[in-house]
């Protein structure tokens, strides 16, 4: 007997909720569909979101708030934003075995030993004949740009603070740029 009463109450509650939902859909449906279509710019997407909206309202809102326009419109906007984010999200790429990267092809032959490396460094700085730079500044610039060391690694090699090394590299870059700009102006 108790089970039967509970089932009847549950059915009555569900029927009342559905009736309230239908009433809310009739009251707000046209406006909300227009609102979603205005957001989406596509009637089909708006209809899909419209259906999702009323399912969400039914599942999450208390029955007395089914026809509360600000709450329903806010939920419609949330669904629209979720829809746009899902549409704009990249699909996931599966992992595959990657081929090893080929060795980079250099257009300039790399120095074979330290003597050739020193000669290359000397030829580079000879391109800037009137430029007065300290040897440590040149070394920091060379290690950073030629070998790709980080500022912290260059600082460790030169036993200086990273901020100091950063300033040296920046100063050398600026001086070299100014020198090249002067050369261009003379031509």
Overall description:
Helix 1 (2-40) packs antiparallel against helix 2 (43-60). The chain has helices at 2-40, 43-60, 69-88, 114-126, 135-146, 151-158, 162-186. The chain is rod-shaped and about 90 Å long. With 187 residues, it is mainly alpha-helical. The relative contact order is 0.06. It has seven helices and no strands. The chain folds into two domains: 2-87, Rna Polymerase Sigma Factor, Chain: A (Orthogonal Bundle); 114-186, Winged helix-like DNA-binding domain superfamily/Winged helix DNA-binding domain (Arc Repressor Mutant, subunit A, Orthogonal Bundle).
What is the overall number of helices?
A: 7
Q: Which second-level CATH architecture of the largest domain applies?
A: Orthogonal Bundle
Low-pLDDT stretches are: none
Overall shape? rod-shaped
> What number of structural domains do the residues give?
2
- Helices and strands, in order, run as HHHHHHH
Rg estimate, integer Å? 35 Å
Q: Biggest β-sheet: count, sense, barrel?
A: none
Binned, the helix content reads over 70%
